[in-house]
Amino acid sequence: MSEPIPSGVPDEERTLIAQLMLGTEHARRIVEFLSYSDMQDPRHQLIYDTISAMCRHQEPMDVGSVEKALTYGGEIAAAGGRDYLRSIVSGAQPCPPGRLLALAGLIAGRAVDPSIPPLGSGPVDHPESPLPAVYLAVDDNGIGWAGLDRQRADERASNAGGVLVALPVIADYRTPQASR
């Protein structure tokens, strides 16, 4: 049996999907690093996978086009149905690019570290990683601070009512990797 999806997570996924269907200049950036498997809600996995394929093929990603693609692929029911798909964009307003990219980053990060909480749930103390990390203070407005100082990031996240996200650095990008 799969783990229950934490409350707040489906709302973040819905918000990201709505923004992609409303049209955003950052869609291609998001599709480059966020995988459908990073989504926790199976309906959102199907919808996002369809949207990302449409983005890669430079096809329109509005709700009508996504609905047609899901229907043509026989996946509209598994994606929650037409009414669910339309409810995702119903009443959605464009959000600032920083928040959109932060949502995508949190969703991708949560696929690696499920302890990352939904936005607005307050600061969290993550276990220390043996790897060096870049720390992000993320709140509803996006990434408010980024740096190598964990304590400072934690203070910023606490003051903003956001969360602390640690992104482990697994290789030094400045040093070329040896050929095998």
TrEMBL record:
Q: What's a GO cellular component annotated to this UniProt protein?
A: cytosol
Keyword annotations for this protein? ATP-binding, DNA replication, DNA-binding, Helicase, Hydrolase, Nucleotide-binding
Report if keyword Nucleus is assigned: no
MF annotations from Gene Ontology:
ATP binding; DNA binding; DNA helicase activity
DNA helicase DnaB-like N-terminal domain: from which residue to which, for each copy?
Answer: 11-91
UniProt record, GO biological process: DNA replication
Family annotation (InterPro entries): DNA_heli_DnaB-like_N_sf, DNA_helicase_DnaB-like_N, DNA_helicase_N/primase_C
Alphabetical list of PANTHER family matching this protein: REPLICATIVE DNA HELICASE, REPLICATIVE DNA HELICASE DNAB
Q: What is this protein called?
A: DnaB-like helicase N terminal domain-containing protein
Organism lineage string: Bacteria, Bacillati, Actinomycetota, Actinomycetes, Micromonosporales
